[in-house]
């Protein structure tokens, strides 16, 4: 006996809406089982992962800080995924945006540079991510190279470039030989939203990206073009939409938003370049995009939910002695649950015997 997935004739809108919720609950149950097998209390873990961060004002600020790069990157990825292009290299585009934007911060370090430095850094960050995102797009449109492989391999190139720079030419000579750049000047630091707050203007950028994307995808010809390209490529060609231009456009947008997330994080949260400027935001944002159903508002909510796992994971490491890798494992389980829930919503399970009987 085997089972097959057959498409459902009609898909319930209610089930499609509830699928991410069911996936999240299922992932939590699986994670609770794993924690119980490790000899810890699942109830105590739930309190540390969820209850405590939501009841602590400092943790709520940290929640927004962690959700900001996730939302920006996932919003960019939604453009690619809607058009059925697989940009898996947002982590590398994030890093390249941080590198190019930081170049200006280091170039003007110690000078009397004015207010123009920060806007210019943001523009350079967007350009760095966009140009890096255009590499797999160009290889796909010109040579037919699979964008999954090229975008993923370019992540490691970007990380090695960053590691070389902070250990070599950009290393702080007064940094006791640590692999890090000098601390950025105030003119090259992204302002905070309030005195004593940890939330910077990158959060505003994320909200603007959500609103603009909601309008673009829902009310413009470009948004319809992406949907048609993803759902029916042949129909898109008959409608006169150029597949190559679409590919280049979505990868540039996706990379640009990832680059903006990178330079916002470095100039607003970290304040300098160092090898570990990301705990894997670019890869985690893939989960965020699908958990949010590729919908801008859904992605905003999903980014807050997944950011909660980062904060809870750090607390669980301290209070419950749980490994931090458990957080990454949970995020992987969550992605599998989301994909499984989508499959079950749009398909029906059919059991087939050897004779072909149901």
TrEMBL record:
Q: What is its main location?
A: membrane
* Location(s), subcellular: Cell membrane
InterPro entries in alphabetical order: ABC_transp_permease
Which GO cellular component term is one of those annotated? plasma membrane
Q: Name one GO molecular function term.
A: transmembrane transporter activity
Protein's membrane topology: Multi-pass membrane protein
Q: Which keywords describe this protein according to UniProt?
A: Cell membrane, Membrane, Transmembrane, Transmembrane helix
Where do transmembrane segments lie in this chain?
21-38, 58-81, 93-110, 116-135, 147-166, 199-222, 299-320, 326-345
Q: Which PANTHER family match?
A: ABC TRANSPORTER, PERMEASE PROTEIN (PTHR47089), GUANOSINE ABC TRANSPORTER PERMEASE PROTEIN NUPP (PTHR47089:SF1)
Q: What is this protein called?
A: ABC transporter permease
Source organism per entry reads: Microvirga alba
